[in-house]
Amino acid sequence: MENDHPVAIVVRASRRKQVGACPFCRREMTLTFHHLMPRKVHRRRYFQRNYARDVLARGIYICRDCHDAIHRSYDEMELARTLATPQALAADEKLRRQFHWLSRQRRAPSS
């Protein structure tokens, strides 16, 4: 990311609508909760043994477009093993190109 801003890691998702700047594309949008460890892997024995429940529940708020780009680019296991931090997501070249492209797209914040 060009202007590295700290990304707030949240322990639990809120049911309240979140609006703000996406940490990846920097657009003001309605934000969705992205689990850093995808929920699909939470039930796997390896992850249950090696990670505390609060670690598995951690996530960040990002815009829907960036969220979709992440899940289109990588499967859940790869996200859990290699891209489980905001810094790893931001440093990934494929995702960085997607985030940069999205940052130039115009889209009104959802209400």
What does this structure look like?
This protein has 111 residues and is α+β, with helices and mostly antiparallel strands. It has one domain (18-103). It is built from six helices and three strands, in the order E-E-H-H-E-H-H-H-H. The chain has a three-stranded antiparallel sheet. Strand 1 and strand 2 form a beta hairpin. Helix 3 packs antiparallel against helix 6 (93-103).
Q: Which secondary structure elements does this structure contain, and how are they paired or packed?
A:
Layout: E1 18-21, E2 28-35, H1 45-50, H2 53-56, E3 59-63, H3 64-73, H4 76-82, H5 86-91, H6 93-103
Antiparallel strand pairs: 1-2, 2-3
Helix pairs in contact: 3-6
Features:
6 helices, 111 residues, alpha+beta
Please give a quick description of this structure.
This protein has helices at residues 45-50, 53-56, 64-73, 76-82, 86-91, 93-103; strands at 18-21, 28-35, 59-63. The protein is of the alpha+beta class and 111 residues long. The longest helix has 11 residues, at 93-103.
**Uncertain spans, ≥5 residues at pLDDT below 50?**
none
Main-sheet strand order equals 1-2-3
Distance between the termini: 27 Å
- How many individual β-strands? 3
Q: Give Rg in angstroms.
A: 14 Å
- Shape verdict: globular
> Structural class of the secondary elements?
alpha+beta
Largest sheet geometry: 3 strands, antiparallel
Mean model confidence by pLDDT: 86
SS element count, helices: 6
| Residue share in helix | 25-40%
What is the string of SSEs from the N terminus onward? Answer: EEHHEHHHH
Number of domains: 1
Task: Characterize the quaternary organization of these chains.
Answer: single chain
Residues in β-strands, percent: 15-25%
